[in-house]
Design a protein that fits this description.
Layout: E1 10-15, H1 23-43, E2 46-50, H2 52-55, H3 62-78, E3 86-90, H4 96-105, H5 110-114, H6 117-124, H7 131-145, E4 154-158, H8 163-180, E5 192-195, H9 224-232, H10 251-259, H11 262-274, H12 279-305, H13 308-337
Parallel strand pairs: 1-2, 1-4, 2-3, 4-5
Helix pairs in contact: 3-12, 4-7, 4-13, 7-8, 9-12, 10-12
The structure holds tryptophan.
């Protein structure tokens, strides 16, 4: 029975509440994540959550955390995530996760945690080496495995930078099964990473990779004057207006590429090569395309932002579905490890 809903994998994905999302995030991950969640959830089941427990490893500003969490919910809903199909919720509404994390930690060699690349990276960047940062991948394993459904796999859409964390999730599932379950009745499936296609690097305003840490981003929901100012400031070389230009060497064109129709893309590339078409023209064209692409999402976001209680209801409903699943899984886990009351 290849395609019955009861055999399809459950899709599970965590989203960082790390401030204003930008076009690099959108083109690199969010767009694919939403399409996948909507599509798979229609046939199977999807859990998408904003990882505020994880954010605490590096953020110690309660107001900012609340705002970022709400912003990500608004962004995803405005960009088209369908909450009637996929459960969207906030990680900290599922307290079972911290319990499962503890149980997993007791099975995890500390040497594996110390070798974590993202842990070492963050410490190298100057973040405090706190216990949360060290054990981050095990909370992530709990995040994924808590939504296990009997007889089904777990599919996890993530960027390529999450490969090691997913490896650790697989190891963790295996360790639990091995420690506590007979070989023919594993409790947890080994989660399956679904690495999102790497879109070519999205350049920021200064031509380097678009990134919050370079302060060179265009926000997904920037608009009007602020958006125009940013687009007009995209770095370009000093080839004069009349001269032919190479579209593939230009940062504005690198963005146009993602928002243009096939015809527009071909037409603009030809205009670059022909000469008489300046970078200012290209930037105006890009601006129009961004407005077109996000016009409806901006309207939806404005409408949602005026009804925060409605957004909270959506998150609550998502959390209820998630808790229901997680508590079934925890009953089995508690029984398996030997707690008196499962
Ligand atoms: N670590 C992931 C990231 O940085 C976020 C994350 C947390 C996650 N829990 C998850 C991703 C579970 C997928 C599944 O992007």
């Amino acid at each position: 029975m290849p395609d019955s809903p009861s055999s399809l994998p459950v899709i599970v994905s965590g989203i960082q509440p790390s401030g204003t999302l930008h076009l690099g995030n959108y083109l690199g991950a969010i767009r694919q994540n939403i399409a996948l969640a909507n599509d798979e959830a229609a046939r199977s089941e999807a859990f998408l959550f904003i990882v505020d427990y994880h954010a605490l490893t590096t953020l110690r500003d309660p107001e900012a955390l609340r705002r970022y969490t709400m912003d990500v919910a608004l962004d995803y809903l405005a960009l088209g995530l369908d909450p009637d199909k996929a459960s969207l919720f906030v990680q900290s509404d599922i307290p079972q996760l911290t319990e499962l994390t503890w149980i997993f930690l007791c099975l995890t060699p500390s040497s594996q945690l110390e070798k974590g690349v993202s842990y070492k990276d963050k410490v190298a960047q100057g973040l405090t080496a706190n216990g949360g940062l060290l054990t981050y991948p095990i909370l992530q394993a709990a995040d994924i495995l808590a939504y296990t459904a009997p007889g089904r796999g777990l599919k996890v859409p993530v960027g390529a930078d999450q490969k090691q964390n997913l490896e650790i999730s697989r190891d963790t599932a295996g360790r639990f099964n091995q420690a506590y379950r007979p070989e023919d009745a594993p409790l947890f499936p080994l989660p399956d990473p679904h690495i999102l296609d790497e879109v070519s690097v999205i350049p920021g305003l200064d031509g380097r990779k678009m990134s919050k840490s370079y302060d060179n981003t265009i926000g997904i929901f920037d608009e009007g004057k602020a958006l125009k100012k940013k687009v007009m400031s995209i770095l370009s070389d000093s080839t004069p207006l009349e001269a032919p230009k190479d579209p593939d060497a230009d940062h504005t064109f690198a963005l146009i590429r993602h928002f243009a129709t096939d015809d527009e893309r071909a037409e603009i590339a030809a205009a670059y090569r022909a000469g008489g078409y300046g970078y200012g023209h290209a930037k105006k064209a890009l601006l129009g395309m961004i407005d077109r692409h996000f016009g409806e999402a901006r309207e939806r976001r404005r409408a949602l932002a005026e009804r925060p209680e409605h957004v909270r209801d959506i998150l609550q409903a998502g959390a209820e579905a998630a808790r229901a699943r997680a508590s079934e899984v925890m009953a089995e886990v508690r029984d398996a490890v030997g707690f008196l009351n499962a």
